[in-house]
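User: I've been going back and forth on whether these two constructs are worth ordering. Before I decide, could you fold them both?

Assistant: Sure. I'll take them in the order you sent them. The first construct and its structure tokens:
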Amino acid sequence: MAEDGNLQIGNSNYNGEEEADPENNTMNQPLLKRHRTLSSTPLALVGTKVSHIESLDYEINENDLFKHDWRSRSKAQVFQYIFAKWTLACLVGLLTGLIATLINLAVENIAGYKLLAVGYYIGQDRYLTGLLIFTGANLGLTLVATVLVVVFAPTAAGPGIPEIKAYLNGVDTPNMFGATTMIVKIVGSIGAVAAGLDLGKEGPLVHIGSCIASLLGQGGPDNHRIKWRWLRYFNNDRDRRDLITCGSASGVCAAFRSPVGGVLFALEEVATWWRSALLWRTFFSTAVVVVVLRAFIEICNSGRCGLFGKGGLIMFDVSHVEVRYHAVDIIPVTLIGVFGGILGSLYNHLLHKVLRLYNLINQKGKIHKVLLSLSVSLFTSVCLYGLPFLAECKPCNPSIDEPCPTNGRSGNFKQFNCPNGYYNDLATLFLTTNDDAVRNVFSSNTPNEFGMVSLWIYFGLYCILGLITFGIATPSGLFLPIILMGSAYGRMLGTVMGSYTKIDQGLYAVLGAASLMAGSMRMTVSLCVIFLELTNNLLLLPITMFVLLIAKTVGDSFNLSIYEIILHLKGLPFLEANPEPWMRNLTVGELGDAKPPVITLHGVEKVANIVDALRNTTHNAFPVLDGEDVDTGAGTELHGLILRAHLVKVLKKRWFLNEKRRTEEWEVREKFTPVELAEREDNFDDVAITSSEMQMYVDLHPLTNTTPYTVVQSMSVAKALVLFRSVGLRHLLVVPKIQASGMSPVIGILTRQDLRAYNILQAFPHLDKHKSGKLR
């Protein structure tokens, strides 16, 4: 099925396989080739799978059945609905917390035993054997993660956050929240992170939380849904959107142990639509996540979690560091913000090029996807194991309380190839898990722990790995790679400043990580709170805010945020919050004139006409007119809008009339229920209508949404876009300002595709958006 509405402007045309043109495509063009023709086959990359894209309908379909169902609800049913929403929010937090704990335990134990085995052979000076075990284990884990994604769930590749943003914006991303996708995401994340790849589990946890929310709201997987009566309340796009918002916030909370940061992340980054009631339920979900995490941390502190170790809710605690800064520190802090904005935008630009290259490789088939992942894993393993041999051994500082040197799976002073009493600073950063690497580089009161050469090697390697790892066919997150890169140059700047600053080098690393995340992702408020909850140091608040604001401002002057770039590349029809300035000089009437005439239906329509409309179009809604002459438009008025799914339901149930008449209210309730009409059943292929039934009639009035959103033809496209996005519409009717005699009361139907800036410019090639924005 194609995109809804009576026409889509300038979307993609698909001939059976993905097409890419990296030489000619600009930043705003998706990976799937677009043709400058009016098309009705919208496609996008969901994960690594090409899918037909539909829109969601967050508008309430106010037909007669809905109105009767709403009026007939008792106070007990209303209470049941409210109680069910809070119960599901609690379950989303509970299950997300449990799965996050499972992932953390699995990663720490798998990676821990791998590093212990490597450390054993290193301690015996059997470096080649250690390399083989390290590389072999990483390749095996990567192979498992990649094969699962490629074979069973292509939509599980990547972080999933761009697709979640698109869904909450009103784009139905197929197979994105299924049970198979969630299971592959969980197992794939464990394998990819434990393999030492330069990726994190934070983005996948956001996707996993959203999958949990979606599955709970619909009663389970598509083929095995639970048909409980109270779940019928959530059989609509609006409530499912709220649940997925709670799931995304819970995922961030589980990844960073940051409940308030999770709520703000959902508000600032992924959610398009927000209200105070949703804020409370989202906060409740994240609170449940924290309770679950805290309970398991207490269990693990007793030593019953294998190699998981001990710790608290604070992942990278720097609260013991005395934060002192003076006016002179404004200069290095400003430099960190500027560097973060420049490097973040440069990273986005280069990653955009790499993703285009990977798309060409992935088009060649499943084997090439697996080989690409294994190649990246092999390069990563060799570099992580081999580069520490370039570092000089540093003597242990006897005044430091931590054990030095160590050769286990963790520790801040790894011995590696050094003699007793000495440690290898590069091995400390490389031969450990990514979380421990961040802890090590954030370590405070250790001004001479890492040499400048080692920090440069660390920074350069993770810049390369951050570019080549994201985009392979494994679940992957961007948060941790960016933190690793940012902390490196932050610590380097702190080392250069030396005695000229009172700020600890570990805090410089924290500021560097925050600045690069703001420069790449362009988040501010949520990042600020997440870093405060990560580090447990409120005294960092003023300079963290300062750094984030500078980095975002600098980054915005160069390009889009990384998630917006990925949205464009995938071709997901995301509607931006702010219209382009030239859209104010184009009216919806002009937009409607570029489209073929609207297909309308009578209030009481012949079955043959309905079948013809469904068979010859892919539109998902049709205006219903009443009046003297619907065919010519004379004396007609708009009764409402009927969905394609409802027409298919009518034909399948054979709700036909022998004569042209209006039906009674009891006749409709006898045949249909509001729960049935909430189902998205639009498969017309298996509907067989006899020739005698073709001459019968259907009364469309009871199933028609009598209050669709309409705009007059003189309204600017910019204003229509704001209305469409704010309300969460699927269809927007354009009506004449004055209905002349013989004129139809509907000029056209606007859909999501019609209001996208890229598509408008394809339909109006003479629109000069760089100057006045007027048609030349």
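The second construct, handled the same way:
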Amino acid sequence: MHPPPPAAAMDFSQNSLFGYMEDLQELTIIERPVRRSLKTPEEIERLTVDEDLSDIERAVYLLSAGQDIQGTSVIANLPFLMRQNPTETLRRILPKVREVLHVAGVEMQLTAAVSFLTILQEESVSIHTYAHSFLQVILLHLEHRDAGVSNAWLETLLSVIEVLPKETLRHEILNPLVSKAQLSQTVQSRLVSCKILGKLTNKFDALAIKREILPLVKSLCQDVEYEVRSCMCRQLENIAQGIGTELTKSVVLPELIELSRDEGSSVRLAAFETLVNLLDIFDTDDRSQTILPLVKSFCEKSFKADESILISLSFHLGKLCHGLYGIFTPDQHLRFLEFYKKLCTLGLQQENGHNENQIPPQILEQEKKYISVRKNCAYNFPAMIVFVDPKNFHMDLYSTFFCLCHDPEVPVRYTIAICFYEVSKLLNSGVYLIHKELITLLQDESLEVLDALIDHLPEILELMSTGGESSVQENKLSSLPDLIPALTAAEQRAAASLKWRTHEKLLQKYACLPHVISSDQIYYRFLQRMFTIMMTNNVLPVQKAASRTLCVFLRYNRKQEQRHEVIQKLIEQLGQGKSYWNRLRFLDTCEFIIEIFSKSFFCKYFFLPAIELTHDPVANVRMKLCYLLPKVKSTLKIPADKHLLQQLEMCVRKLLCQEKDKDVLATVKRTVLELDRMEMSMDAFQKKFYEKDLLDQEKEREELLLLEMEQLEKEKQQNDGRPMSDKTFEKKRRDTKTPTTLPKNIPISVPGPTSGTQSTSKEIKKSKLIRSQSFNNQAFHAKYGNLDKCAGKSSTAAYTPSVSGLTKTSVISLTDDSFRTRNATSAPSSFSSNTPLPSTSRGTGNSGDPKSGGSKDTQPRKAALKSRKSNP
């Protein structure tokens, strides 16, 4: 963009100043009507009410002498008055309301209808009192000249009918209805009668309906006005449910057949929709001999009739397929399927290269109706799969599915994206047939389509990966090379838009990826992206979603050195980042780590970096840490973590003594009370913590199994150079009692408390680790040691918080060159780091010798790991 010329920036010429003055005069003219609309002193005097009046007296005064707006306010406040003083309200206010409603305008009438309904729903008075006081007012205004007011009172009456006793209904509503439904009455009166009759059938027995209601129903079905016939036809469904199957066949079905041949298209449409909704009531003979010919005739004539009939037909197609399933002949089955396919492409054969501004309005309206038809066809696609049998999907419906996924209109693609999961479930082992369509919808240019698809993305990918067979362990997504690029492109497209909720949802759903693609693919294609979002995105829910998904990725990562690189990056770039915003996100990440990982994992890697933020210069960070401290304390076990508990207590004391921010100090005090009330978990199982301890033990066992599985992979790679049979490898695996599968029990959303029973190590490995990624042939060579080897090179560094009156305490911190990242040819440079990875290990509570800092001869970490393995 080029900067504007200097003359355009600011012009102080005479002409320009006159122009500014004219603009100011126009603004003055605009404001004048506003000033004129203010109330005069006389008007204000008339609107003023004595403040000493009670609510009842004020309401009576306003209804008697006030203006319309004041009367409307009183009627809107009627439910409150009924709750406060029902007796006085009924005695003094309700008569005034009746008087006012006779001459009231539309707004007051609508307000009264809503208030009467609210009083009924709140049960402020008994049903008998309500019927005596309010029912006649409702019935009186049913035929108001304004259609909106009439409908509002009708809705109130229909709700009242639900609770009124039979005798009241018979005398107050049904008996007067006989005269209201006559041809001599107005059309509006007969329309109201139709809807009331449909509601009354649920309140009387079949005999009373046959004797008192059905004659009126037949009369209204034969009314001279098509509007009345159509309205009565739509009530036949309620009437059929009230009179039972036999009367429906003998009375309702003949009326529906006659109405389906009516000269009015709206009447025929109402008859068709009612027949579809009543299919379950009719037996096979009625369906095959009566209803099927009607449906067939309706379908044949639909293209020649109004497009609105096509819209209704396409919407009810799934119900028709289900209701008429089994009575089609092979020829009828084929013709019905071809009819559905034709509807799926309706309107696509026309030329689309024209300019919309040059299209006549009637053509545009027709195209909108065609879009609705194709959208309804997409909605009914799962039902059509059942109709043709999933085994015949590729031959009968795949081309139609392809067209719907590539439809030029967004509503059609949006609807088929919603149905994609249902389609995948129905295809089961044939789900591979729609792999390409999944990629197409993931790459769709409309974020609405993507948002609809990702609602069930984890389930869809799971079906794709197993081929629809839950017992199959082999991942089948290797045959879909475009999946990962499509997923990454979808996330980038959502990130570039303003629809952050779609972006957040997508990141949450990506937590399922460890179950469908390999650990290395996640590490190289998704992990760095999660870091970038956490560091650069401006939307807090998106950052938190990325943080939690990254923690899930870390949980399932199968390479120890990659896990250490991620942990180190979290601590350095977030926990020790220059931006306080990043440090806040580190605390969010710590919360997710506590949720997803075992207690020992958090204490080992994140405990000290988290509590170090008590020294943070930003008050918001310290406050957020205070809220997190109870969860941090819950990860400790006594006596193994006694030294960490001392560190925590020391940090809390320092906050209490040195905190200057009043809000943080108040939060610290509340946190201290909560920490004092907490009961510490012991190394041994306790009854009150049994379920939580068992779940934590299970998480810790699975984390240790990851290390053993990595060792197995390395052994297999080392044996690739010399002959090694599968039997030999399986024997080694059995000897180590380690299965080649990964656990799949980490929830994508925040889990609730779960319970389980303790089992042996062998049973846990067989039952919990139910999925395995195939061993990666491109795995890294054993250039770096594992955790045991790394510990051999570690050195101790004293952690000495300076608080007066407290002794210095030190814990082991791990510094190891083997945790540095690989060179640029084997890992992203963004993961490189040369700083130590802080760690604490249970069983190392004794303070280290300050003189040994920097020495390489300290106790190796392998012993600490063995002590953790030996703990129950």
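Notes on the second construct follow. Residues 643 and 845 are 5 Å apart (CA to CA). The two ends are 68 Å apart (CA to CA).
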